Amino acid sequence: MGAAGGPPRHHILSVLVENRTGVLARVSGLFARRGYNIYSLAVAPTEDERFSRITIVVDVQTTPLEQITKQLHKLIHVVKITELDPDTSVERELLLATVGAPPATRGQVIELVQVFGGRILSVGHDQLTVSLDDHPDKIDDFEELLRPYGIGELARTGRVALAKLDPTAPRLRVSRAS
User: Fold this and answer.
1) pTM for this structure?
2) What CA–CA distances, in Å, run from 72 to 13, 22, 57, 94?
3) Domains of the chain, each with CATH number or no CATH
4) Residue 6: per-residue pLDDT
């Protein structure tokens, strides 16, 4: 489900690709050529250095999902494509921001960062650099509440996501040799 219990606004695709030069350019080029709107894109190597995972968030309204996956499957070096349902996945995003924090309002900014579970990374005379990693909706709320203090610089990573683990799956028994 999307925000406020409505239908999802975005498709979240997890694309496992071979970790080769030019793969990201081919994937993003495919979206550009087709006129698909990418909401966010994040890429990094996986636990196996031969592969990278590209998390692509696309707008539901402008992008037919079947068409995207068919086109992606045609690309060389694409290993696996998974659509992640927001209800059954874990999503995170990182925000870094430099925020105005003169002595008169510094305490308020620090309190806001603490309420959201963020961190203060750097302290200047009239500014703080803060970070928060959380669900993208919470990141949106945090960013909005920082705005009145004056955001000097802002960087967001875009979403990364994985399927939730099944908490009811049987546990493995570990036998110990005597």
Assistant:
1) 0.80
2) 11, 14, 14, 26
3) 7-88 (3.30.70.260), 90-162 (3.30.70.1150)
4) 56
